[in-house]
Amino acid sequence: MISASQGQQEESSSAHIRHIVCLKFKPEITNESILKVEKKFPALQQSISGIISIEWGLNNSPEGLNKGFSHCFTVTFENETARSTYLPHPAHQAFVEILKPLLDDVFVIDYNL
Predict the structure, then answer these.
(1) Gap between the Cα atoms of 89 and 81, Å rounded
(2) Residues linked to residue 72 through DSSP beta bridges, in sequence order
């Protein structure tokens, strides 16, 4: 019998992966800088193979539980190999270098579809 975690591990190399990135910008960051991030993050799809889609949006939850995180980006990868290509990819690393100084905090979570 295969446990749920074993089955998930076996499927993970071929399953699509969702990569959720939530951003909390420093209070002093300008709207112009944030707009650049909003354009540059989705543009990574054109530079890095294996990305199925990149969606994003601004928090609009009425619950007030966002803890200051304003932006959520969802990257869908073809599989684990595509995510492994993305993380160290020069285009992604260049974007991270632009993003890091703007952030107060970041939250990332991934899961298999």
Answers:
(1) 12
(2) 22, 57
CATH class of 4-112: alpha beta
From residue 62, alpha-carbon distances to 9, 21, 57 in Å are 36, 20, 15
Q: Cα(43)–Cα(30) distance, rounded to whole angstroms?
A: 21
Residue 13 CB partners (closer than 8 Å, separation 6+): 79, 80, 81
What one-letter code names the amino acid at 32?
E
Element (H, E) at 55: strand 51-58
pTM of the full structure: 0.86
pLDDT, tens only, 5-63: 444 544 456 899 999 999 999 999 999 999 999 999 999 999 999 999 999 999 999 99
Residue spans of the domains in the chain: they are: 4-112
SS3 87: coil
Q: What's the angle, vertex CA 8, arms to CA 7 and CA 11, rounded to 5?
A: 85
